[in-house]
From TrEMBL, chains A, B:
<protein>
    <submittedName>
        <fullName>Transcriptional regulator</fullName>
    </submittedName>
</protein>
<dbReference type="Pfam" id="PF02082">
    <property type="entry name" value="Rrf2"/>
</dbReference>
<dbReference type="GO" id="GO:0003700">
    <property type="term" value="F:DNA-binding transcription factor activity"/>
</dbReference>
<dbReference type="GO" id="GO:0005829">
    <property type="term" value="C:cytosol"/>
</dbReference>
<dbReference type="InterPro" id="IPR036388">
    <property type="entry name" value="WH-like_DNA-bd_sf"/>
</dbReference>
<dbReference type="InterPro" id="IPR036390">
    <property type="entry name" value="WH_DNA-bd_sf"/>
</dbReference>
<dbReference type="InterPro" id="IPR000944">
    <property type="entry name" value="Tscrpt_reg_Rrf2"/>
</dbReference>
Length: 150, 150
DNA sequence: AGTCATGTAACTTATTCTATTACGTATCAT
DNA sequence: ATGATACGTAATAGAATAAGTTACATGACT
């Protein structure tokens, strides 16, 4: 199955933006993520619409954080990306009238709904500043052998 | 993202097999699931290897339950299918050396691992006989307006 | 005016689940 | 024995979709 990696990538970008003075262009972000600037704009558009980043055109333009990391949770980013489907396992709906299928799907839906609720509430509890703090920790633990921060 | 519907389909089939005298051919199962007999054999192969069903060749052959529904949990079926990936959201690994990426991925992995654990333990608690019981309930509730059981 | 940067539609590519084809093997009925 | 039935499986094709690319428009700064 193909994974949607936008959440991971956007978190990565947002934290880099926080550690960066001024704005960053889509081109630079694209290089950072090994992807294409158009993909960056497309994905960041959701974050902009939700008010977490701002984009400016022209000289000196690019992307800049519109809110502090403390005020952005994983859930916020997930929702800004359009609440993409979380599960790779789905229910079959070939025979919606079949009571066996209904029972099977009810059991599966119950389980997946509960897991999704758990994930979402966990996402709500973690802010980007939490992740940034974890980064600082890792950074301090590796001062003798610096790692890339791209 | 594309959903893996094998779990849902196999549960559906197993319960029908329990309510069916004798064996069922891959052709019949395929019609039941709106799919192809080769797909059925391929998917059921996992269940056979795990000992939940048996397959017989030749006249009168086909598939038959090898164990009672009480002894098959959702987790058993999931594992028999090869423990397919559960989440449609994944982490980016473009820069494994980047500490920011590491922190982001650690946060996401924590959350997804916890959700997966929860799902698996829930799967372990539900047996196919539980689902069959739910089916019986739905069936009784609809005697005045029979529904398809295909 | 010219350059830089985003906005977005349209199209292509890559990946992967599903479906199909083709052929092999085992079993049963006659 | 022999033909029909049914599974086993490799190889290939199809379909859905996330990601990548091209092309062009719009806005902003110098």
């Amino acid at each position: 199955m193909r994974h949607d990696s936008r959440l991971s990538r956007m978190l990565h970008v947002l934290i880099h933006m926080d550690r960066h003075d001024g704005s960053i262009t889509s081109d630079n972000i694209a290089k950072m993520l090994n992807t294409n600037p158009v993909v960056v704009r497309r994905t960041m558009a959701g974050l902009r619409n939700a008010g977490y980043v701002r984009s400016d055109k022209g000289h000196g333009g690019g992307w800049i954080l519109a809110r502090p990391l403390e005020e952005i949770s994983l859930l916020d980013v997930h929702q800004a990306l359009g609440r993409p489907e979380m599960f790779a396992i789905g229910i079959a709906i070939d025979h919606p009238d079949c009571l066996v299928e209904q029972s099977v799907n009810a059991a599966l839906t119950d389980a997946f709904d509960a897991a999704e609720q758990m994930l979402l509430s966990r996402f709500a509890e973690v802010t980007l500043s939490d992740i940034a703090r974890d980064f600082d920790l890792r950074f301090r633990n590796l001062t003798e052998r610096p790692a890339r921060t791209v």
